[in-house]
3-hydroxyacyl-CoA dehydrogenase/enoyl-CoA hydratase family protein (Paenibacillus puldeungensis), 309 residues
Amino acid sequence: MNKPIRKAAVIGSGIMGSGIAAQLANAGIPCLLLDIVPKQLTEAETAKGYTLDHPAVRNRLATAAIAHLSKIKPAPLYDESFAQRITPGNLEDHLALISEVDWVIEVVVENLDVKKQLLATVEQHWKPGIVISSNTSGISINAMVEGRSEEFRKHFLGTHFFNPPRYMKLIEVIPGIETDPSLVKELSRFCERKLGKTVVLAKDTPNFIANRIGTFGLLVTLREMAEKGYTVEEVDAVTGPAMGRPKSATFRTLDLVGLDTFVHVADNVFANVDDEAEKKVFEAPEVLKEMVTRRWLGEKTGQGFYKKI
Ligand code: NAD
């Protein structure tokens, strides 16, 4: 790492991107938070007479994400001014600002093509010395930077934060084949000292360590339930608070993660392992796919295994 991390850019302002930006800001690191430009107006925007090129509309996604995070009760474990250190906006209008930060974190949807395309765009505004990482849950780090320059690949690695970043201390750091080893060491030290994380180094295998084991467990649980007739409530009762795990009941966690993200994560192992027995376990069950089709994605849409009331 050529220079210390003093300023960051987080691309993707969903569940994880907004949480990661908040954590960086809370650690005193000013942070850009960038998302796509919305393609449709909301009812409120239409009522105000806005058009799609109004700045409030173009920057809406990241702005709304930070407003949402600021309202979480009980208050996030952050000093109240954390939001002032985040500049929300859309990626399209603010691409040039990427050259001014020290660390860019990609936190967009779990899809290899989308991530590859985004990194190609970022490279056009990237300068050697800027660290670039992905928060992917398990997509190959090496595959994401195919086609990028050698210099870019040296500065690229996986930094897998867990949900929600403000509570979860674990971070998996995943070097690619060409990542500069000194960058891996220094960024890991930064995550430990500045963000209070516990770093686990992982190899670039499908879903790394935590999601290889975690996804396996969840999919086996779903199959056992179907076979044995266990209910969602019963499984959560034996995996949640009563077991000394206040926030980790199985289906509450799935609703927090997002069912669409979970299916992408399972599909990633399914598509990338050769062993037939393992492939079979990682095949997402129809019930999950059906829920995604219905947009029962969990907390982000208000309905998942539980309904938000
Ligand atoms: P999300 O669906 O909540 O948010 C994704 C955001 O990315 C959306 O706001 C979307 O508009 C934006 N986006 C999509 N394409 C974009 C582009 N080209 N440029 C800019 N923004 C773009 O997803 P999430 O749960 O925050 O997951 C993001 C990443 O973090 C994924 O790779 C996921 O696997 C990983 N992750 C998720 C969790 C979890 O529990 N949800 C945990 C760890 C890691």
User: Anything to note?
Assistant: The two ends are 47 Å apart (CA to CA). The pocket of nicotinamide-adenine-dinucleotide is lined by residues 11-17, 35-36, 61, 91, 107-110, 114, 118, 135-137, 160, 162-163, 257-258, 261, 300 (CB under 6 Å).
